[in-house]
TrEMBL record:
A molecular function (GO) term: transaminase activity
Named cofactor requirement(s): pyridoxal 5'-phosphate
Protein name (Swiss-Prot/TrEMBL): Aminotransferase
Stated family: Belongs to the class-I pyridoxal-phosphate-dependent aminotransferase family.
Aminotransferase class I/classII large domain span: 32-381
Enzyme class at the top of the EC tree: transferase
InterPro entries per record: Aminotransferase_I/II_large, AspAT/PAT-like, NHTrfase_class1_PyrdxlP-BS, PyrdxlP-dep_Trfase, PyrdxlP-dep_Trfase_major, PyrdxlP-dep_Trfase_small
E.C. number: 2.6.1.-
Gene3D superfamilies tied to this protein: Aspartate Aminotransferase, domain 1, Type I PLP-dependent aspartate aminotransferase-like (Major domain)
Keyword field: Aminotransferase, Pyridoxal phosphate, Transferase
Superkingdom of source: Bacteria
Keyword Ribosomal protein found: no
One of the protein's GO biological processes: amino acid metabolic process
Lineage, top ranks: Bacteria, Bacillati, Bacillota, Bacilli, Lactobacillales
Length: 393
């Protein structure tokens, strides 16, 4: 191996494995552990969607699909975005991708040249940084913790003033992983005003768009369509994470370039999954509503329980995460806090430092878990906190 040690893509050396999955795997060996770690719905894929997939196999829908996607799916995706979010995309402005992850990768590969900088509001989903680096770009982090995790125009303007024309793109994510925070239409419009007319791409990760609680989902593409890649899919809205079906939307000029990257990377998304996703979008457009109602109950239960223990939480209004600031009288190293909690009381959260600057002193927990497990986890967390405070006293 020494012969090849220095022959790898040097950008790969800049990234590591997922801190989220690494920690999840590390605590999985703890007997009886309750894991509130991964962002995966605990609901089953709706029966009518599963049946569509089964029928696709029986009907021998097992050959390649067209590179952009099956025509029926592209039409369904276009109609879904129109009906739900008043966004207009023609069928040649949509690509079916292998999950939202490939949609993100396709967008970044389409636009990045070596040394290009990408603005990334923090805390962030760690994959953003990794994908920027592996594609030769440079992430520029913007810490939003001081503003309850809402990005402001002033934050963007400051970054642009510092980095100038080297900024190629910005990644936005609302509702946000890991905070669950959602912006308002006014917030989105103000951000759009700062970026409009500048040679800056916008990559908007909206995979949680159907899991918004107290207000409608707002897309930056409503105000800045001509510069924006929109990422969506059925993983979270229809509990289809394993089907690996994402969607990438963009104006035709941008999509003409992106489809070439997509084709050379994967050829096409899985035909069977595309058939199932078509069923999900056409006949299951509101399948997320009962899930959303259950998530709200879980969110409120955890919020109340953790707030009573002294955690500071910006109450999330989307996705299925709580991002909680560790009480000041307890261990502030988020990794150590989470590891101690897992080992002593068999409850697993994700350390906040896995989500970039602004994440230290925080923990993220996913409430995509049964209420029974959530109640047990909160009981165990209280026991852990009470014990730690007794030790500290």
């Amino acid at each position: 191996m020494t012969l090849l040690a220095n022959r790898f893509n040097q950008n790969v050396h800049k990234i590591g494995t997922s801190a989220i999955r690494d920690f999840d795997q590390a605590v999985s060996i703890i007997e009886g552990v309750i894991k509130l770690t991964l962002g995966e719905p605990d609901f089953n894929t709706p029966d009518h969607v599963k049946e569509a997939g089964i029928q696709a196999i029986k009907n021998n829908r097992t050959t390649y699909a067209p590179t952009p996607g099956l025509p029926d799916l592209l039409q369904a995706a276009s109609q879904f975005m129109q009906d739900k979010y008043d966004l207009n995309y023609a069928t040649d402005e949509v690509i079916a991708t292998i999950g939202a992850t490939e949609a993100l990768s396709t967008a970044l590969q389409t636009i990045l040249n070596p040394g290009d900088k990408v603005l990334v509001p923090n805390p962030m989903f760690s994959l953003y940084e990794s994908m920027i680096l592996v594609n030769g770009g440079e992430p520029v982090h913007i810490n939003t913790a001081s503003n309850d995790f809402i990005l402001t125009p002033e934050m963007i303007e400051a970054a642009l003033a510092e980095h100038g024309e080297s900024i190629k793109a910005i990644i936005l994510n609302y509702p946000t992983n890991p905070t669950g925070v959602m912006w308002t239409a006014e917030d989105a419009q103000k951000i759009a005003e700062v970026l409009k007319g500048k040679p800056i791409f916008v990559i908007s990760d909206e995979i949680y768009s159907e899991l918004v609680f107290e207000q409608p989902h707002v897309s930056i593409a409503s105000y800045l369509r001509e510069q924006t890649f929109v990422i969506n899919g059925v993983s979270k809205s229809h509990s289809m994470t394993g089907w690996r079906l994402g969607l990438l939307f963009a104006p035709r000029e941008m999509m003409n370039e992106a489809v070439k990257v997509h084709q050379n990377m994967v050829t096409c998304a899985t035909t069977i999954s595309q058939v199932a996703a078509t069923e999900a979008l056409v006949n299951g457009a509101d399948d997320a509503i009962p899930m959303r109602e259950e998530y709200i109950k879980r969110r409120d239960y955890i919020y109340d329980a953790m707030t009573a223990l002294g955690f500071k939480i910006v109450k999330p209004n989307g996705a299925f995460y709580i991002f909680a600031e560790i009480p000041s009288d307890l261990e502030q190293d988020s990794f150590k806090f989470c590891l101690d909690l897992a080992k002593s009381n068999a409850v697993a959260f994700i350390p906040g430092n896995a989500f970039g600057i602004g994440g230290e002193n925080f923990v993220r927990l996913s409430y995509a878990a049964s209420m029974d497990n959530i109640e047990k986890a909160m009981d165990r967390l209280k026991q852990f906190i009470d014990n730690q405070r007794q030790i500290n006293d």
